[in-house]
Input
Amino acid sequence: MLRHEPRPGKLVAGVVLVLTGVLYAGDAGGAWEIPWFVAIPLVTGGLCLAGAVAFLTGRLRRRRTAGRTATD
Output
């Protein structure tokens, strides 16, 4: 049994922010060159994607629980 319900929107947001951190850590370590402005569209796009995933997940959960009856 799950202790909590999964939140895929938070997972997407976390993955994007970790990816951004890894990119800039590689830049700081000298592994590659990343322009400073790359973080803005990466984080903004990732947070928008996470919001869309969270919205769809919420809609699917509401739809699933609304279809259940008291005998289920």
Q: What stands out?
A: Helices lie at 8-28, 39-66. Residues 8-69 form one domain.
